[in-house]
Q: What sequence folds into this?
């Protein structure tokens, strides 16, 4: 199989069809919602440049028209994106980052009372976190579900049934997983999802880019990470009534020059960026105020009943 499928897709698919529609929530590697239909030669189309090149849509007769459209979800009201800036970067102090990530996961689970995914980029990191959390007694407080210890479908069924489990996952848990409702109300991304440079296909792509004088990090690694990060965030808000917090346990998203682009590509949730104690305070406030939208009617009814009782007691 060729390393670059773009010529095959261009000649055998796109050039043979009068019209082809490609749609997904995670096609653009750049900035988020911009409601417009654009010609591929417009500067704003750069958001789709990575995908267009991968699909072979770089010639004039197959140049795509692209559009970014707003999500129907109310991210600012229903979600909080939190970034801790006072933890070690995983590429600088791997052991220190693992220890800090475990603390963040424990704190987030405590604030949300479980109902949490923790996403990793390798099975090794999943196993290390599972060992650390078990040593801290997490499995005695919430059901701890670990990718690799059971099948994905079984883990998801147990997660949905529990309503307060903590699931540690990698690979397939970043995409194609749908858990709407209160069962999933917290998400932690342990580190930015860069591909492993030594993985054979990744290494081959990077070598090919370097051979023609390109920058493999900018042209390949960074766009892949941006799309994967969007996919990971997308696990949390699956319906118009979902509500929750996403924690990114990797300070590089605010300390590195490329971090701004990654943040701008995420849904427009409210944000809290700073030292973890300050961030945690806001995370706890998020969960302690208001009800899940599915429960809002019951919350309002309960609040009205209590107010009526208080009013009658004062008469």
A:
């Amino acid at each position: 199989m060729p390393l670059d499928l773009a010529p095959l897709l261009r000649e055998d698919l796109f050039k043979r069809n009068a019209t082809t529609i490609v749609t997904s929530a995670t096609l653009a590697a750049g900035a988020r919602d911009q409601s417009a239909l654009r010609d591929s030669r417009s500067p704003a189309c750069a958001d789709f440049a990575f995908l267009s090149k991968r699909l072979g849509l770089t010639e004039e007769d197959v140049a795509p028209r692209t559009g970014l459209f707003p999500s129907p979800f109310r991210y600012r009201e229903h979600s909080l994106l939190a970034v801790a800036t006072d933890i070690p970067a995983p590429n600088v102090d791997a052991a220190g980052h693992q220890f800090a990530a475990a603390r963040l996961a424990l704190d987030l689970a405590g604030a949300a009372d479980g109902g949490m995914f923790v996403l990793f980029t390798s099975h090794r990191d999943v196993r290390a976190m599972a060992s650390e959390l078990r040593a801290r007694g997490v499995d005695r407080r919430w059901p701890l579900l670990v990718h690799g210890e059971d099948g994905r479908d079984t883990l998801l069924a147990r997660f949905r049934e529990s309503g307060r489990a903590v699931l540690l996952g990698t690979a397939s848990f970043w995409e194609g997983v749908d858990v709407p409702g209160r069962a999933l109300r917290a998400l932690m991304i342990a580190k930015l999802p860069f591909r492993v440079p030594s993985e054979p296909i990744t290494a081959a792509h990077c070598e090919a880019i370097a051979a023609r004088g390109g920058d493999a990090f900018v042209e390949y690694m960074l766009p892949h990470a941006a799309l994967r990060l969007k996919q990971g965030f997308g696990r949390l808000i699956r319906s118009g009534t979902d509500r929750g917090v996403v924690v990114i346990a990797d300070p590089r998203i605010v300390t590195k020059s490329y971090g701004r682009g990654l943040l701008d590509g995420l849904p427009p949730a409210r944000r809290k960026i700073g030292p973890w104690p300050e961030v945690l305070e806001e995370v706890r406030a998020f969960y302690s105020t208001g009800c899940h939208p599915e429960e809002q009617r019951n919350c309002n009814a309960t609040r009205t009943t209590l107010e009526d009782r208080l009013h009658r007691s004062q008469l």
Summary: The radius of gyration is 22 Å. The mean pLDDT is 85. Strands lie at 36-39, 65-68, 79-84, 116-119, 144-146, 166-169, 186-189, 244-248, 270-274. Residues 94-112 form the longest helix (19 residues).
